[in-house]
Amino acid sequence: MEENNNDLLTELLGYEPGEQQVLMILEEVKKTGEDIRIVADRYAMPPIFIPDESGKFIYRGESMTSAQFETRFPHRRFVVISSHENQ
After folding, report:
1. In the chain, count of helices (H) and strands (E)?
2. Rounded distance, CA 16 to CA 30, Å?
3. Domain total for the chain?
4. Predicted pLDDT of residue 11
5. Which of 22, 77, 85, 87 could form a disulfide with 46 if both were Cys (CB 3.0 to 4.6 A apart)?
6. How far is the C-alpha of 25 from the C-alpha of 19, rounded, in Å?
7. Single pTM value for the model
């Protein structure tokens, strides 16, 4: 696997995958024809966000709403924790 692909998987997963996991992901991409980001997301722990009063949270140093996150990262799952006070 090329170094840039390994860097991409590390970024998508949130950790450096082992050789066997890389092979599993690439095989699933080949078999299903799905984008590597969609397949890798199945193996990743989703990021967890707690929005502020305005409904925004910080991701990679950038403030965004859930809708903005979904638009920017359509392949990612994520968890939003909120209370009745900030809904």
Report:
1. 4, 4
2. 21
3. 2
4. 86
5. 77
6. 10
7. 0.68
